[in-house]
Amino acid sequence: MSVDKENNHKKRQQRLKETVDARVEAAQDERGVLQVITGNGKGKTTAGFGTVARAVGHGKKAAVVQFIKGSWDCGERNLLEKFDVPFAVMATGFTWETQNREADIKAAEETWQQAKKFLADESIDIVLLDEITYMLSYDYLNVDEVIECLANRPAHQFVIATGRAAHRKLTDLADTVSEVKNIKHAFDAGVKAQVGFDY
Ligand code: ATP
Ligand code: MG
């Protein structure tokens, strides 16, 4: 690198550092964050569980609610239950080709009652509400009730809500919203969902 280029690079990095330092200095609030991870790409549930693992690794108390239960076993559950993370899993296993709306609503409602307990529990630091967006888009749960519970949860409690097509009221309430974009997916090339990687 020429001396000029190197000096310019140094100056740019110095300015960047000043900007970042100022923003770090300004961000002093400490409170529970509501994060929504949505979009059509792969990685929403994985990211949710990644954050739960991060919290548990720091000795924090986590709880997981799965609004859609696959027919396969869940590797994250097998691991996290060893660390006493409670799981609430929707009993009937809602499917995409839902045949029985009444049964699905009942199961969603029962799972939500467990979620509500976690969201009211001061001792829980982080709650993962996996695939909850579908419960709202299918109108299985009342969006205003869900929003109210999230808004009234303990101030220190983190919540991660995942699923495609997040309801506007949920993203409005959220502090952090990430959209995972699908660039390509192995499934489209005929690769099936595989243990240890997809579940
Ligand atoms: P993951 O659980 O792998 O983080 P996800 O939570 O982002 O995925 P979901 O919409 O919940 O995605 O889908 C669950 C299952 O569908 C997973 O087995 C995942 O690998 C697969 N999947 C995710 N995105 C896609 C996609 N764009 N095309 C096909 N299959 C997908
Ligand atoms: Mg998912």
Under the CATH scheme, which class of the largest domain? Alpha Beta
Let me know the average pLDDT.
93
The outline comes out as globular
Structural class: alpha/beta
Main β sheet profile: 6 strands, parallel
Give the secondary structure arrangement, pairings included.
Blueprint: H1 3-26, E1 34-38, H2 44-57, E2 62-66, H3 75-80, E3 87-89, H4 101-120, E4 126-130, H5 132-137, H6 143-151, E5 158-162, H7 168-173, E6 176-179
Parallel strand pairs: 1-5, 1-6, 2-3, 2-4, 4-5
The chain binds adenosine-5'-triphosphate and magnesium ion (MG).
Describe it.
- The chain has 199 residues and is α/β, with parallel strands linked by helices.
- It folds into 2 domains: 1-30; 32-189, P-loop containing nucleotide triphosphate hydrolases (Rossmann fold, 3-Layer(aba) Sandwich).
- 43% of the residues lie in helices and 14% in strands.
- It contains 7 helices and 6 strands.
- It has helices at residues 3-26, 44-57, 75-80, 101-120, 132-137, 143-151, 168-173, and strands at residues 34-38, 62-66, 87-89, 126-130, 158-162, 176-179.
- The chain has a 6-stranded parallel beta sheet, sandwiched between helices.
- The protein is globular and about 70 Å long.
- The termini are far apart.
- Adenosine-5'-triphosphate binds at residues 40-46, 131, 162, 164, 180, 182, 185, 187, 193, 198-199.
